[in-house]
Amino acid sequence: HEYHTKTDEFLEGIQSRITGGIITRFGEVLEGLLVRLARYDETAMFSSILSIAKPTDEIGKEYIEFCSSNLEQIRHHIYDELLVLSLFDSWYSRQIRLIHDWLVKDRAQASLHAYQVTCLGFIVKKVHGDFELQGVTHDVLDTRQYQSLISRIQTEEATQSIKIGEATSSPKPGPKSLLGSMAGSFSSLSNGKLATSGLSSITSSFSNFLPKSSN
C-alpha cells in the first residue's frame, strides 16, 4: 500500500510539472502578444502608423489559431480526461488573468487604441467560447476577473463606436470648397477690383482652412 501511495504521488508530481510547463509556455505566447499590442498605446510613438499598416484584428486571429491548434493537439495526445480538463482550466484562467492585469490594472485610466479594442475583444470572446466547448465549467469561465475584463472591453467598444459616429457626422471641408473660394477671389481681380482687396480675399480663403492657433 505504501509503495502504491508513493508511486501515485510521484506520478502526480510529474503530471503537475508537465502541466505547469505547458501553461507557462502558453502564457509566454500571450505575454508576447500583449507586448505587441502595447505598441498601439495612445501614448506610444507611431501607433497610428502601425494601425494603418495592419488589417483588422490580425494579431487576435493569429492567437486564436494558436489556441485552437493546441486545444486539438492536447485532445489528440492526452487520454486522461481529468488531466485534460485540469490543463484547460489552468490555461483559461492564466489567459484571463494576464489580459485582465494588462488592461484593467495597467491601463485603468488609459483609453485604448481602436486596434487594441478589436483584438482584445475578439480574443476574450473567442477564448471564452472555445474553452466552454472544451468542457470548462462556468465557475471557472465566469470569474470576477472575467466579468471585470469583459465590462471594460464593452465600455471601450462603445467609446470607439461613438468616436466613429462623430467622425462620420462631421465632414471636413473638401478641396472643392477651397478652390471655390479662391476662384471667387480671382474673379474679383479680373473684374477690375482693387488688387489689395482680391489678395486679401485669397489670404482669407486660405486661412479658413488652416488650423487656428490658440492664444
UniProtKB/TrEMBL annotation:
GO terms for biological process: dense core granule exocytosis; synaptic vesicle exocytosis. Residues 1-85 form the MUN domain. This is DUF1041 domain-containing protein. Pfam families: MUN. It comes from the Eukaryota. InterPro entries: CAPS (IPR033227), MUN_dom (IPR010439). GO terms for cellular component: presynapse.
